[in-house]
Amino acid sequence: MSKPRNAFYAQSGGVTAVINATACGVIETARANRRRIGKVYAGRNGIIGALTEDLIDTSYETKGAIAALRSTPAGAFGSCRYKLKSLEENQDEYQRLIAVFKAHDIGYFLYNGGGDSADTCLKVSQLSQSTGYPIQAIHIPKTVDNDLPITDNCPGFGSVAKYIAVSTREASFDVASMAKTSTKVFIIEVMGRHAGWIAAAGGMASDSATEIPIVILFPEVAFDRSRFISTVNRKVKKFGYCTVVVSEGARDAQGHFLADQGLRDAFGHTQLGGVAPIVAAMIRDDLGLKYHWAVADYLQRSARHIASRTDVEQAYATGKAAVAFALKGKNAVMPTIVRTSNSPYRWKIGEADLNRVANREKTMPRGFISRDGMGITARCRQYLAPLMAGEDYPPYRNGLPRYIRLKNIAVKKKLARQFTV
Prior knowledge:
This protein has 2 domains: about 5-140 and about 305-360 and about 390-400, Rossmann fold (3-Layer(aba) Sandwich); about 155-305 and about 370-390, Phosphofructokinase domain (Rossmann fold). Helix content is about 35%, strand content about 20%. It is built from 13 helices and 13 strands. It has helices spanning about 20-30, 45-50, 65-70, 90-105, 115-125, 125-130, 155-180, 195-200, 225-240, 275-285, 295-300, 310-325, 380-390, and strands spanning about 5-10, 35-45, 55, 105-115, 135-140, 185-190, 215, 240-245, 290-295, 335-340, 345-355, 395, 400. The strands form 4 sheets. It has a 5-stranded mixed sheet with strand order 3-2-1-4-5, with helices on both faces. Strands 7-8-6-9 form a 4-stranded parallel sheet, sandwiched between helices.
């Protein structure tokens, strides 16, 4: 039997409450296959760790520490927003990756991220063909935006959806208590650049047993100020108050983001944030109502204390499946979540070619959005409910969640040349 080769694992893009559960699945599965996989080296700060030869030797971590990742939020090894250019545009980056992989005998590349990360993984997979160096690249899905195609849903989304639904319900109860003489409209801003999946989760706060007047502003539906103001006014008159869930990606009929700051992130995307006060100002100016607004921001994606059990289980399963795919000799693929039944909810792991995933986004189906464009349908509720289901509380100590901090011991560098990004 040939000597087992090492694996490289890294986290990319915005982290989630359950991305470390995926890391746990990767590392535990790799350790269970020591005859075929040597060590798991984690990239410090994503692909940057590979380029700069800043690798973490996970073999120094105890079994208990790796297991504790399953209940720890954020990225244990650090993440990044860094997109590789094409081979033609920047051969130096790819030559550097090959040099690092060769120096540390890395034969498996496991990249945990969203659509742009799928693109990076696809490019790395093509190195085998263009350079002759044997490397198997497996993309592991992760995104709170739930916008990766092919897969039914994305690890990280279910927990965000649960957090937003819970927060919307709790805040709405608060506003209802104060509406007679104080605040009548509460606005909560949620993530979602082009897809309104997280905003839709806010609609789950209201149901037949707990009716709440909620208005949702989706990226998929052009914002109409007069219709919006009219809807809010009608709900306030009927219920005495109203809650507005607005996606950061809400845009007008011309396609302009309401919260466009004129800035771009490392991937070239418009830097968003701050749409809640913009909407609040409209309510003040047009209706003269007292309001409060909040931006969920990092709170929504880091809230491991209220994570969905379904989400945790799926995050772990995709990490485990990624290693299994690599051991089967697969390349340029991604494990997917396949929904096999709605009632009872059942799912299994599937497989997608990265050419069908990279640089593509899945938005909300029109059938998931109510006819007035500001609510969700029964079909949407059926889709969302099982993804938010179940609790998987982390261990607590002295009233606070007990999260793990890994040693993250660096692998000794072997290359003389330094590389900066």
